[in-house]
Amino acid sequence: LSGLDPAQPYFQGTPIEVRLDKSDADFVDIIHTDSAPTIPNLGFGISPAIGHIDFFPNGGKQMPGCGKNPVSQIVDLDGIWEGTRDFVACNHLRSYKYYSDSIIYPDGFLGYPCASYELFQSGNCFPCPEEGCPNMGHYADKFKDKIKNGFLKLYLNTGEARDFPLWRYKVTVTLSGRSKVKGYVNVALYGSGGNTKQYQITKGTLKPDNTYTAFIDAEVNVGKVTKVKFLWNNNRINPTFPKLGAATITVEVGQNR
Predict the structure, then answer these.
(1) Residue 130 class from Cβ within 10 Å (0-12 exposed, 13-18 middle, 19+ buried)?
(2) pTM here?
(3) Of 133, 165, 197, the domain-final residue
(4) Cα–Cα distance between 174 and 248 in angstroms, integer?
(5) Which of 2, 155, 182, 231 is deepest in the core (most CB within 10 A)?
(6) How does it sit in the membrane (predicted)?
(7) pLDDT value at position 78?
(8) d(CA 192, CA 224)
(9) CA distance 182 to 235
């Protein structure tokens, strides 16, 4: 049984006979997309973990792309009816959109087991544990026999619009050069499955021999990494023409570590 943002009003905190619960089927997976409190946030979705595995994409409360201004949302690419519904209940309706995208992307929507979204964002729950990470949505049941404890809370990030899945990488850059400069470092990944755009790894004072780490949620699964593009810029004309390079760049894939 897959719960697509099960309802909060009149259901949250009620006995399990009344609402969706892990006892309702051999395997119950839940996608929480609108679990902020109903008052004052108008959250339509239930917030506690109630399935065998519970996915909280983007933290489970506020979905990226749902903060668009009302006019652009109502005059949506998918038509006025779809746009109007999104304006009223955008976060709530994201659950079925993620689910339908998950059918097309069997390797997408990896959920990382974590105690909270804040810990996930800071990189504490990366990479996947040895048994791997379940895929949110249609293929969640592939994980059915790997569940060890009572409740499994899983976190991930998604895109703002279709296509929604993102793939998480940890990128670590050690700089080389003669002197420190101010600026930013960008990295793009190239691989057998496609290339990513540039992602900012760090910004501010760049010191040679220092190591900088960032987690990127890429819009493509790059597959086997074949090349990494490194760019840095100091955004100003510097008469000393400082040079910076990358001594090493390490890319860690969340999925297979």
Answers:
(1) exposed
(2) 0.91
(3) 165
(4) 5
(5) 155
(6) Peripheral membrane protein
(7) 66
(8) 5
(9) 9
Q: Assess contact for 60 and 156: CB atoms under 8 A.
A: no
Per-residue buried b or exposed e for 90-119, using 16+ beta carbons within 10 Å of the residue's own CB? bbbbbbebbbebbeebeebbbbbbbeebee
pLDDT value for 236 = 72
Radius of gyration of the chain (CA): 21
Same domain, 65 and 190: no
**Does 175 lie in the same domain as 160?**
no
Residues 6+ apart with CB under 8 A from 228: 187, 188, 189, 190, 249, 251
177 and 148 within one domain: no
CATH of the domain at 228: 2.60.60.20
Query: What are the C-alpha distances in Å from 222 to residues 13, 148, 208, 256?
Result: 42, 30, 28, 13
- With vertex at residue 122, the alpha carbon angle to CA 41 and CA 3, rounded to the nearest 5 degrees, is 45
Within 10 A of 195 (CB to CB), how many other CB atoms are there? 14
pLDDT at 123: 95
The answer on 73 and 172 residing in a single domain is: no
| Dihedral over alpha carbons 156, 160, 166, 170 (to 10 degrees) | -70
Largest CA distance in the chain: 73
Alpha helices in 21-79 (DSSP H): 38-41, 70-74
Residues of the chain with pLDDT under 50: none
d(CA 217, CA 75): 28
Contact call for residues 129 and 112 (beta carbons, < 8 A): no
For residue 43, give its domain range. 1-165
Q: Which of 37, 153, 156, 84 is nearest to 47 (CA)?
A: 37
